[in-house]
Amino acid sequence: MEARKTVLVTGGAGFIGSHLCIQLVQKYPDYHIINLDNLTYAGNLENLKPIEKAKNYTFIKGDIANAGEVDQLFDKYEVDGVIHLAAESHVDRSIDSPNEFALTNVIGTLNLLNAAKKSWEGKFDQKMFYHVSTDEVYGSLGDTGLFREDTPYDPRSPYSASKASSDHFVRAFYHTYGFPILISNCSNNYGPLQFPEKLIPLVINNILHRKPLPVYGDGTNVRDWLYVLDHVSAMDVILHKGKTGETYNIGGNNEMKNIDLVELLCDICDDELGRPVGDSRKRITFVKDRPGHDKRYAIDAGKIKRELGWEPQTTAELGFKNTVKWYLDNQEWLKRVTSGAYQDYYKKFYGQN
Ligand code: NAD
Ligand code: DAU
Predict the structure, then answer these.
(1) Helix 258-273 crosses helix 199-208 at what angle (to 10 degrees)?
(2) Could you list the mean pLDDT of each consecutive 10-residue stretch along the chain, which spans 353 residues?
(3) Residue 4 in contact with residue 81, Cβ under 8 Å?
(4) Residue of 200, 258, 259, 261 to mutate, ligand 2, most atoms within 8 A of C-beta
(5) Which is nearest to 251 in space by CA: 303, 198, 323, 193?
(6) What structural domains and CATH numbers belong to the chain?
(7) Threshold 0.85, pTM exceeds
(8) Residue 223: nearest ligand to its CA?
(9) How many angstroms separate the alpha carbon of residue 189 from the centre of ligand 2?
(10) For labelling alongside 58, which of 44, 188, 211, 282 has CA 20 to 30 A away?
């Protein structure tokens, strides 16, 4: 992407989106960053404090599933680039209520594509629609193998099915209309500001409160963990250097079994909290498995390294330590996001408060 003036980030009040907005606003003072977010349970304006008063930043509360609201935004602003992250993002919630995922992730994406296409007619060569997706669209790996950009899609949860569908629509716009797109498919992110429904912040929060640490099934499922700021730097590189129409896989080269990760978090937390060695591990509890639980995700991130020169910079040791420290230093943040509706969520999904 050339030096563009107005970049629309969707979902910028969520975990990854807030890190992305902060980075773009601070690194590119010449850009106007518009953050469109509906502030669902996962959106939190508190995450955006460092930039809330910045001159080159505008927050707009709006629903991507509402075509009228999306059209209005494109009528009001001459948007040059879109980085589309807004989504329902939690697999367990998708198992409970799949329709919400179709509405936001599929229809919401289509609304953005339609609005951008209409607004950008005749100027596609100066525009870019960058769709942020997930490695879960590729399905589940056995003990060996890696997801590549040409791995056939095989989504297996309602969440990954909705993300796969949105990826297909984005590619369809490229092939059918010559609409300018980029897609990236990224592995599991971790770091500060992640809502504690996801494994890492949930476990840290439970360790703090000496609550059971729920591990699904036998704990041998594998994920490839990437520090969120590395994902942000990859998105920056893709937006500016990515080749129109291409897909890039992003990963952390950091595969871990869930049980090993939870034990590591226990040990780092105990150390930081001055608790006896092994104290938190005693609260690890194997619980009923997630239905259709994908066994293993692992990314071949060779293409983005070869073609765009990106690779992750944060070691697992540093990333996990920083992350634990952030949650321990920001217990008030944790308290605020886990009060109210989170209590009902936790009870519904884990059977206790
Ligand atoms: P998140 O759940 O933390 O944030 C999602 C944001 O989208 C929230 O701020 C929410 O308010 C907003 N949103 C939801 N529905 C909306 C709607 N209808 N209109 C406008 N805004 C809406 O998610 P995240 O973990 O930051 O993930 C962001 C994106 O990255 C998602 O598209 C996800 O699929 C993708 N992704 C996430 C990961 C990960 O590990 N978290 C990995 C790969 C890809
Ligand atoms: O791979 C990228 C995806 O990573 C993103 O597209 C999703 O938006 C993001 O939520 C994440 O999906 P996962 O399902 O892998 O993340 P989650 O943190 O929910 O779970 C990680 C692993 O830990 C998974 O194997 C399920 C397991 N787990 C999770 C929770 C919440 C547990 O064992 N116990 C738990 O309580």
Answers:
(1) 40
(2) 78 98 98 98 97 98 98 98 98 98 98 98 98 98 97 98 98 98 98 98 98 98 98 98 98 98 98 98 98 98 98 98 98 95 95 80
(3) yes
(4) 258
(5) 303
(6) 6-193+223-254+295-315 (3.40.50.720)
(7) yes
(8) 2
(9) 10
(10) 188
